[in-house]
Each structure stands twice: as structure tokens, then as C-alpha cells.
Design goal:
The complex is a heterodimer of chains A (368) and B (147).
Chain A (H helix, E strand, L loop, with lengths): L13 H11 L2 H14 L8 H4 L2 H10 L7 H31 L5 E3 L1 H8 L11 E4 L5 H10 L3 E2 L5 H7 L2 E5 L5 E5 L20 E5 L2 E5 L2 H12 L9 H13 L5 H10 L3 H15 L7 H7 L4 H12 L9 H15 L5 H24 L1
Parallel strand pairs in A: 1-7, 2-5
Antiparallel strand pairs in A: 1-2, 3-4, 4-5, 6-7
Helix pairs in contact in A: 1-2, 1-4, 4-5, 9-10, 9-11, 14-15
Chain B lengths: L2 E3 L4 E6 L2 E6 L5 E5 L1 H12 L2 H11 L5 H17 L3 E3 L10 H12 L7 E3 L2 H6 L20
Helix pairs in contact in B: 1-4, 2-3
The chains are: A alpha/beta (368), B alpha+beta (147).
């Protein structure tokens, strides 16, 4: 693999950046970036999953420019497949939302569904692998029961109880391979600082396929896109760049930058927001109102925030092989991530208690 | 006959001269290319098979007219049989736009029998790698040695 393809996760490598430019910039830049990308990436061997998921958007862009080449047929096929898979996901998500609605459980559709429908304006160009639905924390158990009733099973039943207290949500699948992520917290960070009304207070109604639910405001969607994207992941997390770029380009006037900063401060994700916006401004010429970056630079992230960010850069999510020290590091970082305490001594006392509690629960479960 | 797309179960999109459709109840995927895609667009826009046949008759060469109209009737029958469209009443037919009329003119002048390609094995389709397992037309057409 050439050095241009080496991963500097979670930020795009040279090849991924070219692909993003081809997808997002338009005109001659799109075409020249696409041709340069083709010259350094072997289409048969070197297309990583993150880049693959940008190809439907590339197809749409090149089509709109009247550009064709030897890969057009396969790009069109990738587009068609993404269209089919996304229609399937929209359909089963709509069925679940109708069920939730009939049980009076409010729901917010997150990530791919609102982004595909409203920001990309063409669901085919924003491939999804599952549907993401958020319910209020107080309705989480009810929503889990509802999903189980219609044969969606949690991917890790063993930690469901733990995650209902400390976690963000859990994946569910049914026998036909439908995947759905049920969330009960919009963000897993600083959960003691979160309020029940956070994110819900500015949620906006969204209707699709006969279902009616809510989506985040564009401000909240942008924050979550950047924070979630800036975590190292086996699938190169480059799509956050396209999501955030298009969100700001299309709905920049609707972004409430003060709220963005307030939430970043409260949920202790300032570093992610600062790094993410910096990258978008420097590499993709995104306009951020004067003063927003200054304010971000003036904020001083605390110890826990720095550890959590470093962990996200080095280990991140969904890594298959993790060594014992990395597991300990992850355990520690995850604790710091959901804790809201800023006092170093108290934080570590709390960590000791939490560790003992987890250890005892594990031991008890073993003998039950 | 007035017709409408069998929504909400049927979703469709036309891209680069090809209409792709999916039946959300069965998971069946359909593709309609070339003349079929233009005829589909005319049907969706006007909601009237009479309007389509009238225009097609006017635009056809007299020697070809019978074949063209017969092929279109058969095509509409297939669309109905697959449940992609359904009969409807009082839908308030729209006029065909000039752009679509020009496409229809071109289609009729080099008319090819429209086909509805149906792909019913979702599992097989999802297993087909759109980079490595397909021919130059792209997914869902497998490479010849994969068939």
C-alpha cells in the first residue's frame, strides 16, 4: 500500500481527501480530483469501505458534470445498490417508527436517514448500513421491549442492563438481517451533565414513507456528526467530512453556533469540535462565523476531555483486536467519557468505585 | 385507462436512462432501460395509457405503428402484472412536458421493445460485490463467469 493510502485516522488520507474533493467541490476540481484519485488507487484492490461509501455521491456528481469513464458502469451499479439498500432501510425504519408512535414513544431519526433525505436530498448518495433511532432515556426499556416484540434482538444482551444505565444505545437485528441501532442518549459523553430536554428541545418533525418522527436541528446534527466522526474506526471515518460539509453548505444559516459551543462545552467534546471545524475550514474552505474558532481556542479542555480525545484517536470504536493494556485504557477512557466530574481526586475515587461495582457485577453474573 | 405508481409499496427513480424500482413488500428489484424508461416517465407524468398510446401513434412511422403500440400495451400489462402500477380514477392527468415529448420522439424513432427486468433474489443481489463481481454495466449484472 502506498504512503498516500496510509491511514491517519480519523482524518482522511491523501487518497480519501481527493475522493472527498471529487464528491464535494464540483466543476473541473471534481473531475481532476477524481482522475488523480484513480491514478493512485487501484479500484480493484484498494478501495477501503469508507471510500466505497462515497462512490454513489461521486457517481451523482460526475453524472451531473456529463463525465464518463471506464468506471461509470460500476459506479452506477454501486449507486443503484445503495439506492436499493437505503430504500429497504427507510422502509423498515418507517415501520418501527409507526410502532413507536402507536405506543406513544417519541423518536428521533439520526444520522443517515435525515442526512440522506434533507442534506444530500437523495438517499442513494448517502449509503447506510442500518437505521439509527433515538428515544428518550425514560422510554428506553419500553422501546427495547417493543423491538423484541417484533423480533429484533439486541446484539449483546449480556451488557444491555449496563448500557441502559451508562451507555448510549445498542444494535438490534432481526432474522432477515435488518439492523437497527436504538439509542437512548444522543451522546455518551458527560451523561451527568445532560438534561432530559437536551437535543429534544429543538427537534423538528420529519415524515417519510408514511411515518412521522423527529430529527435533530441542523445545529445538533452537525455537532453529533463531528463528534462521532472524529473517532478512530476500522471503517475509515471519512464520511463525517462529507456530512458536515454538505450540512454547513446547505443549512449554514440555520446553525446556531452559540448552542454548538454551549453543548460542546457541557458535553466536554470541545477538542473534537475544534479539530473537526479546523479541518473543514483549512481543507474544505468551509465558512465558520468569525469568532467561533477563537472561542474554541480560548476554551481549555480538562484532563478527562484530553484523555477521552486521545483514546478516540488511538483506539476509537469497534476495533476487533485489542490488547489487555488497550482494554484497560478503553475501560478508563469510557468511564471518563461519561463522567462529568472535573475534580481529579474525586474523579478517580469515583472510578475506583465504578471499577469495583463492574467487577462485582461480572463476578455475580458468572455465578448466577 | 388512468394509472398511478403503486405507492407507497413501490419506490422508483430514473437515472441516466434507466428506471429502477423496488417493491418494498416483496423486496423485488426491477430495472427498465432505454425505451422502457422513457415510456415509464410518460406514464408517471400523464397518468394515462390513452395519452401515451395517442402520442406514440402520432410519432410512429405508419409501417411501425402497430408494432410500437402493441409493444407498449404489452409493457403496460407487465407493469400491472408486477404490481408496479395500478389503475386509478380521477387522478387529473397532466400534459406531457416538451422535454419528455422530445425524449419520446427519439425513443419512438429508434424503438426497441421495452422490457421489465426483475431481480427477485435479494440475498443473491446483496452478495454480488459491485466492484469485483459485475460486468461493465455494473451491479446487479454479474460477470459472465459468475452466472
Amino acid at each position: 500500500m502506498s504512503s498516500l493510502l496510509a491511514s491517519k485516522s480519523p482524518f482522511p488520507n491523501t487518497a480519501q481527501q481527493l475522493l472527498l474533493q471529487a464528491a464535494l467541490f464540483g466543476g473541473e476540481t471534481s473531475i481532476s480530483s477524481w482522475e488523480e484519485w484513480k491514478s493512485i488507487v487501484d479500484f480493484e484492490e484498494e478501495v477501503d469501505h469508507g471510500s466505497y461509501r462515497l462512490l454513489p455521491l461521486i457517481y451523482e456528481k460526475l453524472q451531473s458534470l456529463g463525465y464518463q469513464d471506464e468506471l461509470t458502469g460500476r459506479l452506477k451499479g454501486i449507486y443503484k445498490r445503495a439506492w436499493m439498500e437505503n430504500q429497504r432501510i427507510l422502509h423498515y425504519a418507517s415501520e418501527i417508527l409507526k410502532l413507536a408512535s402507536s405506543s406513544e414513544i417519541p423518536s428521533i431519526v439520526m444520522k443517515g436517514i435525515p442526512l440522506g433525505l434533507l442534506v444530500y436530498k437523495n438517499p442513494a448518495t448517502r449509503p447506510m448500513s442500518d437505521a439509527d433511532i433515538l428515544v428518550p432515556l425514560k422510554n428506553a426499556r419500553e422501546a427495547v421491549a417493543l423491538l423484541k416484540k417484533v423480533s429484533y434482538n439486541p446484539v449483546n444482551e449480556g451488557i444491555l442492563e449496563h448500557d441502559l444505565v451508562y451507555g448510549r444505545g445498542m444494535g438490534f437485528t432481526d432474522d432477515s438481517g435488518r439492523e437497527l441501532d436504538l439509542h437512548w442518549r444522543a451522546m455518551p459523553d458527560s451523561i451527568k451533565n445532560s438534561k432530559e430536554s437536551d437535543f429534544w428541545d429543538q427537534a423538528v418533525q420529519i415524515n417519510f414513507m408514511g411515518a412521522s418522527a423527529f430529527r435533530f436541528s441542523f445545529t445538533d446534527e452537525l455537532l453529533l456528526t463531528i463528534v462521532h466522526g472524529l473517532r478512530k474506526n476500522p471503517e475509515p471515518p471519512i464520511r463525517w467530512v462529507a456530512d458536515a460539509f454538505l450540512l454547513i453548505k446547505k443549512y449554514g444559516v440555520d446553525i446556531d453556533w452559540e448552542r454548538l459551543l454551549e453543548y460542546a462545552l457541557r458535553y466536554k467534546v470541545l477538542i473534537q469540535l475544534k479539530e473537526g471545524l479546523n479541518y473543514l475550514v483549512n481543507e474544505f474552505r468551509i465558512d465558520v462565523p468569525e469568532g467561533v474558532q477563537d472561542k474554541l481556542y480560548r476554551c481549555n479542555p480538562g484532563y478527562a476531555e484530553r484523555v477521552v480525545y486521545r483514546h478516540a484517536q488511538r483506539i476509537g470504536d469497534n476495533r476487533k483486536k485489542v490488547s489487555l493494556p488497550e482494554r484497560v485504557y478503553t475501560f478508563y477512557a469510557r468511564f471518563l467519557r461519561h463522567s462529568a466530574d472535573t475534580n481529579f481526586m474525586r474523579l478517580h475515587l469515583e472510578f475506583a468505585c465504578y471499577s469495583i461495582e463492574r467487577l462485582m457485577n461480572k463476578t455475580l453474573n458468572k455465578y448466577e | 385507462m388512468q394509472i398511478i405508481v403503486n405507492e407507497p409499496h413501490i419506490v422508483h427513480e430514473t437515472i441516466d436512462g434507466e428506471t429502477i424500482l423496488m417493491d418494498l413488500r416483496s423486496g423485488n428489484y426491477f430495472s427498465i432501460e432505454k425505451s422502457g424508461a422513457v415510456i415509464w416517465e410518460v406514464l408517471v407524468q400523464t397518468g394515462s395509457t390513452e395519452e401515451l398510446l395517442k402520442k406514440a401513434g402520432e410519432l410512429s412511422h405508419p409501417d411501425q405503428s402497430d408494432r410500437v403500440l402493441s409493444d407498449i400495451r404489452n409493457f403496460v400489462k407487465k407493469l400491472l402484472a408486477e404490481g408496479l402500477i395500478r389503475e386509478a380514477n380521477n387522478i387529473g392527468a397532466s400534459d406531457i412536458t416538451e422535454e419528455l415529448l422530445n425524449s419520446l420522439k427519439l425513443t419512438i424513432s429508434s424503438f426497441e421493445t421495452p422490457e421489465v427486468n426483475k431481480y427477485s433474489d435479494m440475498q443473491e443481489m446483496l452478495l454480488l460485490d459491485p466492484i469485483h463481481d459485475v460486468d461493465e454495466k455494473g451491479w446487479p449484472e454479474p460477470k459472465k463467469d459468475k452466472e
